[in-house]
Write a structure and sequence with these properties.
The chain is α/β, with parallel strands linked by helices. The chain has 2 domains: about 220 residues, FAD/NAD(P)-binding domain; about 120 residues, Flavocytochrome C3, Chain A, domain 1, CATH 3.90.700. It is about 30% helix and about 20% strand. It is built from 13 helices and 19 strands. The strands form 5 sheets. Strands 1, 2, 5, 6, 7, 8, 17 and 18 form an 8-stranded mixed beta sheet that branches. Strands 11-12-14-13 form a 4-stranded antiparallel beta sheet, covered by helices on one side. The protein has a 3-stranded mixed beta sheet with strand order 9-16-19, covered by helices on one side. Strand 7 and strand 8 form a beta hairpin.
Length: about 475
């Protein structure tokens, strides 16, 4: 859901912004940047400037389905779920192929619980139910609403930041870092008319997101990902997608190192898939057979899809599952179809009725037993046997950059020589290190919250090089 901030009465911009010396300049208004703004304000900074190149706030965050993975023993215990930071870290390292920066991954996991409560203190209202997201490996993911969670996070953080005096400037694209005497001193930017603007600041935070929408840049790191793969934020090529790697390119020009930039994540998203948690749907190929553990890592699932004919699959669920906001629009656009029986569904899918019926009957038996000997699926929230059935074709889109600008435990940008670049911080999808070669479900947002919070606190304390 896109949103402007016109409903707020706080000042969004002011004349003479270029003449001020800002305590902290934040580039990007997704949850990483907004977490940094809130944290910097809580740490005592007064003059916070948030620059957003788009006409609306939120970046990819506001479009997110919004599951946030975090240890939450208070809620989990009530639901009979055992969890710990140690287990979360093991899960995150397993998904990342143990190519993660161990220290950074540990920070995400060990700070996840306090971050869940920090967000509550800022106004986030979590559902009491805890989910295992797709590729999440364990039930620890939180959400505010299956319909508008990303919107909730963005607007809650933004409201807090603006109420405490932060200034937001939209339609302002950062083009270069001001780098003087070995330290970052602010940002050069352009407005929608192409006019150059200079913003001076004691510290600068890059929260510019990834580079999934920059085809040439992503092909540089993964030559397979050409124009034929849309982004999940803009699957039909009809809307604004600001994930063009601006922060990465600016940082590299002043000597920043990268970490794991070659690991871009593919997921099935804007077709037949309606759920972002494990146990309520199945994936079948074009002859009606399962081919993968639907609860496996995104790397496992996407590579299995790439091996299917036409790289297409069907996603199937039924009336019992908790569906997101996309259901109505997908039904209206005939991306999703409904059927009152397996036989009717098979006819519409043009797959053999016998095979599809056997597939669902076998799956439902496994779901009842809680064990899947074919593909090792371990979590089942339901059988899939209550009509109407919802189903649709699904393809892969480029979803997430697992790597980017190299950072350290203080969210400081690390140079190619291994030293830090004074005055420059990074958080969220613009950064690289915590995830390794694949991202665990629900951790993209948690990592953005955790390192956004760290970046804001550290940038607030920076006194200049």
């Amino acid at each position: 859901m896109a949103a402007t901030v016109s409903s707020f009465s706080f000042p969004l911009w002011a004349n003479g912004l270029e003449d001020e010396i800002w305590d902290v300049i934040i580039v990007g208004s997704g949850v990483a940047g907004l977490s940094a703004a809130c944290s910097a304000l809580q740490a005592g900074s007064k003059r916070i400037l948030i620059l957003e190149k788009g006409p609306i706030v939120g970046g990819h965050s506001i479009l997110s389905t919004g599951y946030v993975a975090g240890v939450d023993r208070k809620r989990q215990k009530k639901l009979g779920i055992a969890d710990s930071p140690e287990l979360m870290l093991r899960n995150m390292l397993d998904i990342g192929g143990h190519e993660n920066d161990f220290e950074l991954a540990k920070i995400v996991c060990y700070q996840s619980e306090e971050t869940i409560y920090w967000l509550e203190d800022l106004g986030i209202k979590w559902e009491e139910r805890i989910f295992q997201t797709v590729a999440g490996l364990h039930p620890r993911s939180h959400i505010t609403s299956p319909v508008r969670a990303g919107y909730d996070y963005v607007m809650t953080l933004l409201k807090f930041a603006l109420s405490k005096g932060a200034v937001l400037k939209l339609n302002t694209r950062a083009t270069d870092l001001i780098y003087e005497n070995g330290s970052v001193k602010g940002i050069l930017a352009t407005d929608t008319n192409g006019l150059s603007q200079k913003y001076s600041g004691k510290a600068t935070i890059l929260a510019t997101g990834g580079f999934t929408a920059n085809v040439e840049l992503r092909k540089k790191y993964d030559p397979r990902l050409g124009q034929e793969f849309p982004t999940t934020a803009n699957p039909f090529g009809s809307t604004f997608d600001g994930a063009t790697g601006d922060g990465l390119l600016m940082a590299q020009r002043i000597g920043a190192a990268t970490k794991d930039a070659e690991y871009l994540q593919l997921i099935p998203f804007w077709g037949g898939r309606l759920l972002d948690y494990v146990g309520g749907d199945i994936y079948v190929n074009t002859v009606g057979k399962r081919f993968v553990n639907e609860g496996g890592s995104w790397k496992e699932v996407s590579e299995a899809i790439l091996k299917q004919p036409e790289r297409e699959i069907w996603a199937i669920t039924d009336s019992q599952s908790q569906k997101g906001a996309s259901l109505g629009i997908k039904l209206m656009n005939k991306v999703i179809s409904k059927a009152d029986s397996i036989e009717e569904m098979a006819v519409q899918m043009k797959v053999p009725k016998k095979i599809l019926k056997e597939t669902l009957e076998t799956y439902n038996h496994y779901a009842s037993e809680g064990k899947d000997p074919l593909f090792g699926k371990a979590l089942f929230t339901q059988t899939i046997d209550r009509p109407p059935y919802y189903f649709g074709k699904e393809k892969l889109g480029v979803h997430f950059c697992c790597g980017g600008i190299k950072l350290n435990k203080n969210a400081e940008v690390v140079s190619t020589s291994g030293s830090i670049i004074p005055g420059l911080y990074v958080c969220g999808e613009a950064s690289g290190g915590p995830h390794g070669h694949d991202r665990m479900g629900g951790v993209a947002l948690m990592s953005a919250f955790v390192f956004g919070r760290i970046a804001g606190k550290q940038a607030s304390a920076f006194r200049g090089a």
